[in-house]
Specification:
This is Glycosyltransferase. InterPro entries: Glycosyltransferase_grp1. By secondary structure, the chain is an alpha/beta fold. It has two domains: 238 residues, Glycogen Phosphorylase B (Rossmann fold), CATH 3.40.50; 174 residues, Rossmann fold (3-Layer(aba) Sandwich). It is built from 16 helices and 13 strands. Helix 1 crosses helix 16, helix 9 crosses helix 14 and helix 12 packs across helix 15. The C terminus is likely disordered.
């Protein structure tokens, strides 16, 4: 069939939103469909390089990239936070105009909005009046106010973000229209699922918003050799919502008998503050910050550590969790949002998000537990690895194919839910 896919973020050489956008387009073509992918020119070099490398594969002949630009003055505004929002909205309008033009000759059977994965930013493509998949998307999650001391610049990053979200949900009719006209909304966490239902979604399914190429996985789950120190890894862009100070405060509470070392990988706006944070919590000798590394180097780091310790305070689902599980790395994290919904209980210690005092203490006790009981680590790693395999792109594409068949009339969408693997560790989200 003919599929139109919208992927504002699209680059096979990157992870996160950009990697997700390209892989949804590529996997749809791998399944034998003809795909027109609307995207920006930002990832063009990586896309063209990838397509050249895979030119002999049939999917490359079935995938047509359609690059949509915005006016130069809109592009100029991208350098500021609010300019990013405006750029995206203008691009969505331009993409819809191009989609209308293409549909007159192609006659699409299905439309899929893949990225950006934000419910509030919506899509214009429901106007094509075709079977329409919206997502996976997040946007319903918020950072808990009680933990604001761990997020530098709370007003700018969280108060303003929540205000913009409220404005879009309240005054942008396109948000509600997108959700109501979508054949299905794929929600990246329970909070977003409930928000979509409250806006009038016909059908909502929980669906993890990130995946991994099969080449990322080792042939079998990695088994770490015993080590005198518990080697902890924190990996992310240094944005406020990733809450590195909370993890450092927790580690400062770990009993002195516990030998551990924390590796911090990532750079970003808060990078200059990391040395002072380490000094504040007395961790200069027990933590090392490496800054930004390549995706390949990040994979090597995941294989070289014992535990992934991460506690983002606002995330649909951090892609690092899936990467850690793919490398057989046990996880210590917070029991909320996407981490709560998808990380198997057997693969992680997930601590309650209650108060800063209780939560940091629980994180500290989790580190102590895994130090005292290293025999737990292999089983946790194996459980995470088994789940991560269900989120390799071919497996995710197979579940998407099941959904697509329902939407084009080959099965009843009212009676055929997605395969259970797409709802691991969740409560059911009934159709509206």
């Amino acid at each position: 069939m003919n599929v139109l896919l919208s992927a504002y973020g699209c680059n096979p050489r990157q992870g996160g939103e950009n990697g997700n956008g390209f892989h949804w387009a590529w996997q749809t073509a791998v399944r034998g469909h003809r795909v027109w992918c609307l995207t920006t020119t930002d990832g063009r070099a990586g896309i063209e390089e990838y397509l050249l490398e895979h030119a002999a594969e049939p999917a490359a002949t079935r995938l047509q990239m359609v690059y949509v630009d915005v006016p130069a003055w809109v592009e100029f505004l991208f350098r500021w936070q609010f300019g990013v929002y405006f750029n995206y909205m203008v691009w969505q309008y331009q993409a819809w105009r191009k989609a209308k033009e293409l549909d007159q000759t192609v006659d699409f059977n299905l439309v899929h909005h893949a990225t950006f994965g934000s419910l509030q930013f919506a899509s214009w493509l429901w106007r094509l009046k075709k079977p329409f998949i919206f997502g996976p998307v997040g946007g319903g999650q918020q950072a808990p106010v009680a933990f604001k001391r761990y997020l530098p610049g709370w007003f700018k990053t969280e108060t303003m973000r929540n205000a913009i979200s409220w404005l879009l949900l309240t005054f942008d009719p396109n948000v509600r229209q997108t959700v109501r006209h979508a054949s299905v909304v794929l929600a990246g966490n329970r909070e977003t699922a409930r928000l979509a239902e409250s806006l009038g979604a016909q059908r909502v399914e929980l669906f993890l918003d990130t995946g991994l190429p099969e080449t990322f996985f080792p042939e079998q789950v990695s088994v770490r050799a015993p080590h005198p120190e518990l080697r902890l890894l924190w990996l992310a862009r240094l944005y406020p919502r990733k809450a590195l100070p909370m993890v450092l405060e927790a580690l400062a509470q770990v009993h002195p008998r516990v030998r551990f070392h924390l590796t911090i990988i990532g750079d970003g706006p808060l990078g200059p503050l990391v040395p002072s944070w380490l000094a504040q919590y007395g961790l200069q000798e027990r933590a090392t910050w490496h800054g930004a590394v390549s995706w390949a180097e990040a994979r090597e780091a995941l294989a070289a550590h014992d535990v992934f310790l991460f506690g983002s305070l606002r995330d649909s689902f951090a892609s690092q969790f899936l990467e850690a599980m793919a490398m057989g790395l046990p996880i210590i994290t917070l029991n909320h949002q996407g981490a709560r919904d998808f990380i198997p209980a057997e693969a992680a210690i997930k601590v309650p998000v209650t108060t800063p005092t209780e939560t940091t203490a629980a994180l500290a006790r989790a580190v102590e537990r895994l130090y005292d009981h290293p025999e737990l680590l292999p089983a946790m790693g194996a459980a995470g690895f088994a789940f991560a395999r269900t989120q390799a792109w071919p497996a995710r594409a197979a579940r998407m194919a099941q959904l697509e068949e329902q939407l084009v009339g080959l099965a009843s969408p009212q009676n055929q839910p997605l395969a259970p693997a797409a709802r691991t560790q969740t409560e059911p989200v009934p159709a509206a």
